[in-house]
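Tutorial sheet, problem 5. The two components below are modelled jointly, 658 residues in total.
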Amino acid sequence: MDALLLAASLVFQPYVLGVMFLAAIFGLFIGSVPGLTATMATALLIPFTFYMDPVPAIACIVTTVAMAIFAGDIPGALLRIPGTPASAAYCDEAYALTRKGKAELALGTSLVCAAIGGIMGSIMLTLTAPVLAEFAIKFSSYEYFWLACLGLSCAVIISTGSTLKGLVSLLIGLFISTIGIDITAGHPRFTFGNVEMMGGISFIPAMIGMFAISEVIRFVVSTTPPERLIQQPIKNIFAGIGTVLSRYKLNVFRGGAIGAVVGVLPGAGADIAAWIAFAVSKRFSKSKEKFGSGHVEGVVDAGTANNAGLSGAWVPSLVFGIPGDSITAIVIGVLYMKGMNPGPTIFLNQPELIHAVFVAFFLANIALIPLGFVAIRFSRQILRVPRNVLIPIILMFCIVGSFAINNTVFGVSIMLVMGLMAYLMEENGFPVAPTILGIVLGTMLEDNFMSSMIKADGSLAGFFSRPIAATLGCLVIALWLIPVLRYCIQTVRARNQ
Amino acid sequence: MRFNDAITGSVLVVFAIAEIAYTRTFPSLFGQNYGPALFPQIIGYSLILAGVILIVRGLKQQRSAGAGSPWIETGEWVHQSRQKINFFLVLLALLAYILFSNWLGFIIISMAILFVLLYRLGSSIITSLLVAVATTATLQLLFSKLLLVPLPAGLLRGLVY
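Model answer (structure tokens):
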């Protein structure tokens, strides 16, 4: 309780609240511009958080992301283009509502559901993270090795598209993490004599490249003409929300629960949570036939789920240092830079910081309602901001941001290479998220692997010598067998036909 | 630009073989058969496995798609000079920053990159100029003055600094 009060006093300060307010405006803006994602918003923020204390830095990211994920619904409903991938699942449905003249209902529902989902996710985070941390305090390198494996395997299996391509993407990320001075012997690996490579590939410029530069490239080569805005007055977005919520209260709850749980799984973030919640909603709906023709039910489920997923993703990130999605992957990088190594000890040593994260989450999601309301009011103006002016400005921000991390142009080079690579990968159906997780978790994975090997004197049996490690190990191996089994079943079936 | 999986797979296999060969030069720790080379080697062998499966898949795909289907599918933009120039301009802008920012200084190179890209992407000369100057000024103030990032002064050293 003391920690909670202390945390509240850390958050409720003019400076922190001011940062959160600015972050909210930034998040709402980036989220509502199609093509600019919540992850990109986070990546662009890092150079600023770099110079802040931990609490405002975290509050800044939490607020930006919560706002951006909701704001992604605005162009989804008005233009049929999701502002962020997390809105893609129900974008058609919201647009169909708008076409029926119910834009207010679509936007109002997604705003209120986003706030409720965010708060449900925050409650989940507040309740589960400290308990898990207490459990995790007993973990040794064996358990951490398996946990990292579990996280990475989940990321590959859940990632969009083919599992094999997800695996390749992960391996690329892991390879990148091996560049630089190696931890066990101090030998420079894959640096080719370059001094700047010895420190390893700093992952912030890599992240800016993969999420922002690839988007810039995609914009300048796109051949589709700009889309037309639906002209429809938006007045009272809260009219009729009460009826919707009371009719679909089960959906709200289910969406929130799905979002929070999917968020916890590493590599699966708000976007996958929304897809799953939407599918579940349709599957169990009493009026399945209405889906696709402007039915608000799916918007309730998925709109709640994506914001709940955001907070869920923080659970493994804070407790184990294993990011739940690409946004928290960036957050972990920021935490390391601030000397707050995520893991169970942070819950013991700096509980006020952890509680400050919780407080920031609640505050941001409550503030979502008034600020989101204003954003919807100005949506027409925001959507009219010409993207051909924005893109060069974003490019310049990326350059300065990646330069600012180490104050060398080496960061800009990393950003360029990673941006090109991410662009090519996505064009060829390779998901980018596993690469990010590979870069972030690679060092931790190798660290724990090597120290376990040294402890067990090179014997692999050591990895199964402790009960929790053995359980986790079996779980990981079972996960690895799923794609193999699926393949076998498919071939057998194909042969029988 | 879309490659057939067989091409991507072959590239990965070649890369992985080169990577594994390179790890052979890493020193091993005394009395241990696991050292700095172990982890990259595991990654390399996994990449070879994944690459081979990709090759098999790509070849199968190619066979079912019929002869004459392309191995490399270029996006629509490659045939349109407008988009092609845009693409290379972005690359050029980044390369220019990497190579010349130290010599020219942040203010000059930032304004140049912004102006060229803005104009190229369809803004008028006046708008491009105004936005380029305003953005550069904002960035300079924000990063150099507020966040204390030593943006390169370059040719303007002594004038602004």
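Marking note: Chain A touches chain B through 54 residues (CB under 8 Å). Full credit if you identified this.
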